[in-house]
Request: fold
Amino acid sequence: MAQPESLAELLNGRRAAIDATLPAAGFVLGWLAGGRSIWAGAAVAVACALAVCWWRLRHGDKPRAVLIGLLGVCVAALIALRTGKAEDFFLLQLLSNAASALAWAVSIVLRWPLLGLVVGGVLGQKTRWRRDPALLRSYGLASWVWVLQYVIRLAIFLPLYAAGQVVALGVARIALTWPLIAACLAVSWWVIRKTLPADHPGLRHPQTN
Reply:
């Protein structure tokens, strides 16, 4: 199988991970520097998100994708301000991970694995990859790695959230974002390469005949 690109290169996981961790780190730092003030943490988090938006827009990213990230940070900050609990800044992330784990698992069972939809979208294939039985099977198997990623996050975040460990939640957010995404991309790519037939032309060339 001739395949020069990895999933990490196709999906640009590093950039997304950095964008996700900066506002969370800013919230914790602002919260601590402000004497455990949620307002201070929220202000720094939103400032970090705005800086990320400015940087991404300046480098040609799509406004819609950039603004969705900013909206997520603003909603997380509003939740914490509304409840008066700093740990609730991470509540949206907890819910997102739970929903993602469920969505990825259901997509595999329905034979519409989300990894295939994501990669197919990036490659401009739409759903043509589904007509390739080998690719469909490999995407399904590799998608279980992503389910596991979300389950691992939940297993670590939930006890910290229940205990109100704000600093630990921030550290976990950083530690479990880029390193875990990198591991997930590497392992799911390994699964695809191992499960596709040796003569398969690769992700860019679904065999639809």
Q: What stands out?
A: The longest helix spans residues 133-162. Residues 83 and 197 are 53 Å apart (CA to CA). The mean pLDDT is 89. The two ends are 18 Å apart (CA to CA).
